[in-house]
Amino acid sequence: MFPSVTLNNGVEMPCLGLGVYAPNHNSEVQQAVEWALEAGCRLIDTAAAYKNEREVADALQVAGLPRHEVFITTKVWNDDQGYDQTLRAFDQSLGKLRLDVVDLYLIHWPEGNKRRETWRALEKIYADGRARAIGVSNYYQPHLNELLEEATVTPAVNQVEFSPYCYLPDVLAYCRDKNIQPEGYAPLVRGEKQNDPRLVALAEKYGKTTYQLLVRWSLQHTVITIPKSVNRERIRENFDVLDFTIAEEDMNEMNTFYDNTRIATDPRDIP
User: Active site located where (predicted)?
Assistant: First the structure.
């Protein structure tokens, strides 16, 4: 089994999971989740916007694992933000996932002027025991400062884009200071950096693929990591990262790769 971390409310969350953002491959998501669970993965990260919560539910049914063994995250989309709208969106997500309780519910983006009301809805969902933990996604310091001014529950998780090419140590430091667990998506940069000569050289040193090196780098920053793939062998490779450790000097070198390469919007552009 993969290692886990304890969130600020005592809930245990796996450190390594499967992201299922796959807009052109939703027909393959069920199979990908089945393969991931077969490989030992116990964290599945979906969202209402991905339109594949039903496929995740189907995979869970096929796998037949005890409910408590699999950690399920989903998110409320921008169009559904607001207090009542979020509560309705959450009910819809639970229905598609065929669950009574989700393990982690996130605000997908700090968009618009409804995010405070959205967080209030998440706090109600949490208080009612319908989500074991609540958090945010794509929040940087200004958005978190705004939220924490009024929140009665500190977010358990902040999910942000995270790779050596999108490495902002001040965001990690802020989250840790506030006892918010960082989680990183797009650790593989959608393959854009797989041929970076610096990365290739380090991967050869460790006898691993460049993708495995990227996943391991993220884990060694104590960031929950959710690489995405719908390819069986790639899924297995992405999870085969616990038998080596990147040396400190190589971690430090990878920390210098930052060039603000992103696959999603930069939260610093969101007021």
Answer: 50 (proton donor)
